[in-house]
Amino acid sequence: MPVELDPVKSAHKRSDFVGIFQLKDLSRLYEFVVSDSGQVDVDLKCTYDEQGLPIMLINAKTVVDVSCERCGGHLTLDLLVNATYTPKLSKTDEDLIPSDYTIVDINEYGLLDLKALIEDELLLAIPLVPKHPVEECAIKEQDMSWGELDKAAQEKPANPFDVLKSLKNPK
After folding, report:
1. Which of 3, 8, 108, 169 is most buried per CB count within 10 Å?
2. Main-chain phi, psi angles of 148, to 5 degrees
């Protein structure tokens, strides 16, 4: 897979790319995974849409192991990215771009950092708090404790500054 790509030239050539990125080469994603083995399978098609916009259709998938936030064990996740991107060009009117397209910035040379784009999308595909389903987790539901607040802790003073007044003027 190319690391950088000119989306306009690639769309003009109707380029198709099929390849992989190694997980260990995606440094930001690598920080979240437990295992360094694995790869990201990428299928990229560059073309023009009906409006004449250059677009990139990206399908990326990988399997990663992350830590379960509940039990700390390994959790296997299938990460999938299916998206349509169009480069932000000076002549492009963003109001005319379909809502299902994602606008991506290109550098001063007209190139897009494809590896970083795919890494960003895979990072967004990881759940905010990854954890096993309760029935599969090492910590079972009966081991979880749910506390209840006493009524005094639930009651809030009407004015938060009343506490400060009581400190200033002790009775």
Report:
1. 8
2. -120, 140
